[in-house]
Amino acid sequence: MMLTILCCYVFSRFYRGGFGRDLAIRSSMAPVGLVMMLLFPATGLSQVAFDVNAMAPARDASQYGLLSRLPNSRFVEVQLESSALFQPGSTARVTETMIRVMSRHDDVLVADFSPRTELQTDVFGPMQISLEEDRMREMGIQGVAGYPMIGNASGFAYQADTGHQTVHFAKKPAMETLTAAGTLARQRGVYFKMHQSSQTTLEGTRPFRVVFEVPESWRADLLDVTIDAVGFESASSRKTSVLTSQPFVVAIFQDRDDAAARIAADYIKQQSNLAIYAKSYARMIEQRSYPTPFHKLGAKLDIYEPEIPQGWFDALVYRSGTGYHLSKLSPLPVDVRVAIMNYIDHKQRLEALSGSKDLLVDSRSNTAARPRTPSEVSDLARR
Fold first, then answer.
1. pTM across the whole model
2. What domains sit in the chain, N to C, each tagged with a CATH number?
3. What is the pLDDT of residues 229-266, one digit of tens each?
């Protein structure tokens, strides 16, 4: 019965919308082919692989004290290093890359950053402009005079004046944007946009420096870093779009604070473990979310809600807090739920060191979080 309803709903949507009718007429595709196209849409391969350092110390930057905008605050300086690796054949297609660095709290603001906006030109030195002008003046006079009974007399006079003038002056060559940089979200973040040029390359490692104004009690925090590659959609097209976008989370900690550094390192380790388990159990997670192909089709048509929320990994890793109540993640394999609980514990401990007023987690303890056991996870999921 469910299969019949789904099939009727799908084909009614297709033929009412017009695009499905045209597709079916042009390709003479059977109904099974239409279902397969919906369930398994084609996806392009990534053109660029990005990376960024997972941890970074925050060094004291008290020289920025005169720029203070928040009460009971101080300044720290963080250096990030991003890396870009182009796939073969994609170098000519990528025209620019952009890095966005965002804080998760309103009381952490960007005070300074580098590199700043830079311009460049392919012309070395000033341009020399020469203007040449030639002048020539000619003048001729001819006269005839006659006297009765005596005769006529005539005369001719000619004068020529020539001249040549050359003017030299310097002109600045046209400049092109090499790097553009600025703040985002009322100075909670900063962006760096790098353009491809004949003198530089977008591949390799680039350093970026950001100075944050943080609360006085700040010891550690998480930064959201997103790196985009923009380029031509195809080798024959001049239309540009985002080819690749990769999110990262960077743990930063107060320099020479060993306890905060250990908590940041433990967080990175638990994040890596969670990613490994999520990848290892990917097929099982998909099977539990969509028991049959028709459940997946129903999810695409918004008539079926998967057992496991879509984007659960991104919600846990790339958002502040836990993202979901544990009961919503109970269909996940037990090993994945154990990894989630351990990850959440370390994430909360690290965020508690940010000194932010919007976090209600106790930040007074510095000891490492004890890993959860499968029985503890089951008990918490039932609450």
1. 0.70
2. 47-121+175-255 (2.60.40.680), 127-171 (no CATH), 257-383 (no CATH)
3. 999 888 778 888 998 999 999 999 999 999 999 999 99
